[in-house]
Amino acid sequence: QVQLVESGGGLVQPGGSLRLSCAASGLTFSNYAMSWYRQAPGKERDLVATISRSGGNTNYDDSVKGRFTISRDNAKNTMYLQMNSLKPEDTAVYYCYVQIIRAYWGQGTQVTVSS
């Protein structure tokens, strides 16, 4: 029943911005911490950011600190990732994640940063 659907990816030039969304269903959204992961071709899937149930606590990988902001709107069952000052090394498929006994993954949304 749990479903996570990412959107908002696309092509942007270095220094540009994108806002990713993750729409969740099949769960009481506000009961769970959520995360964004990303995976580039030929590389491992890495944790980007995590947000607590209420949104009051956040955690970021060092590579995105000061550039990315994770947030959530529990009334809309949606999590966001605002990405600013994008770099080519940010190019990856970005995935929404939640663990409820088992892990659930969204299908991913492609972000490409290129000049």
Tally of individual helices: 0
The total count of strands amounts to: 11
- Average pLDDT: 97
CA gyration radius, whole angstroms: 13 Å
* Helical residue percent band: under 10%
Estimate the strand proportion. Answer: over 45%
- Main sheet record: 7 strands, mixed
Low-confidence stretches: none
Report the end-to-end length measured between terminal Cα atoms.
40 Å
| General form | globular
Structural class: mainly beta
String of helices and strands: EEEEEEEEEEE
Topology (SSEs and partners):
Layout (H helix, E strand, L loop, with lengths): L2 E5 L2 E3 L5 E8 L8 E6 L5 E7 L6 E3 L7 E6 L4 E6 L8 E9 L1 E4 L3 E5 L2
Parallel strand pairs: 2-11
Antiparallel strand pairs: 1-3, 3-8, 4-5, 4-9, 5-6, 7-8, 9-10, 9-11
Could you explain how this protein is built, in words?
- The protein is mainly beta and 115 residues long.
- It is 0% helix and 54% strand.
- The protein is built from no helices and eleven strands.
- It has strands spanning 3-7, 10-12, 18-25, 34-39, 45-51, 58-60, 68-73, 78-83, 92-100, 102-105, 109-113.
- Strands 2, 4, 5, 6, 9, 10 and 11 form a seven-stranded mixed sheet that branches.
- A hairpin with a 1-residue loop joins strand 9 (92-100) and strand 10.
- The chain is globular, with a radius of gyration of 13 Å.
- The relative contact order is 0.32.
